[in-house]
Structure formats: C-alpha cells, structure tokens
Design goal:
Elements (H helix, E strand, L loop, with lengths): L1 H16 L4 E3 L5 E4 L7 E3 L6 H9 L4 H7 L5 H13 L1 H10 L2 H10 L3
Antiparallel strand pairs: 1-2, 2-3
Helix pairs in contact: 2-4, 2-5, 4-5
Length: 113
C-alpha cells in the first residue's frame, strides 16, 4: 500500500508543478494568476482583467450592459471588479493606458527600426 501511495505521489508531482499559482486579493471575486494576463488582477475563474471592466465603466456602460457582453459573469463579479478598480485606481488606470491604441501608437513610433 505504501509503495502504491509513493507511486501515485510521484505521478502527481509533475502535474502539481504545472498548476498556476493563484493569489487572492482583498476582493472575493478578484485574483491574480501566474501566467494569466501577465499576472494582472482578473475576475476569479476567468481571463477577464479588471482593467477591461473598468474601461467599459469609464465609457459609460452599466453593469447590465457589461453582463450582456459577458453573460457568464455575475453581477457580484462585475461589481467587485468595479470596487477593485476604485480601490486600486492608479494601477488599473495604468493598465488601461498600456492596453490603449494611444499607447500602442506611441510605442510603435518610439521603437521603429
């Protein structure tokens, strides 16, 4: 029996090493996941970064409109993303900018070969 347990542990160790590290935040529906969206805060269990929700809110979209665009999200998840944005405004504003067309244009101009 012990030999079987060791054998199974040996089989599981490589699989467990490849499981991404999830880091919870102070917001229950927001996490950071190693290797997902560059480690930016995302809605738990998704690859939707908080900055996308914040950018939509800044454009005037309502929670209902955001849920219509992402029907698998709950109202609680969207509200929590908005709350995270308000509590971490500088970080999320930076992410919005770094993912904007303006930033990409500026980067391309600076890095032309």
């Amino acid at each position: 029996m012990e030999a079987e347990v060791r054998r199974l542990k040996g089989m599981l160790e490589p699989l467990m090493a490849s499981v991404p590290t999830r880091t919870p935040t102070e917001h229950p529906h927001i996490e950071r996941v190693e290797g997902v969206c560059g480690g930016e805060p995302v809605i738990e269990g998704t690859r939707i970064p908080v900055w996308i929700i914040a950018a939509r809110v800044k454009r005037g979209e309502t929670v209902a409109e955001i849920i219509e665009a992402y029907p698998w999200l709950t109202e609680a998840q969207v509200q929590d993303a908005i709350g995270y944005y308000h509590n971490h405004k500088e970080e999320i504003e930076q992410a919005i900018y770094q993912n904007s067309e303006e930033y990409n244009r500026e980067w391309l101009e600076k890095n032309r070969v």
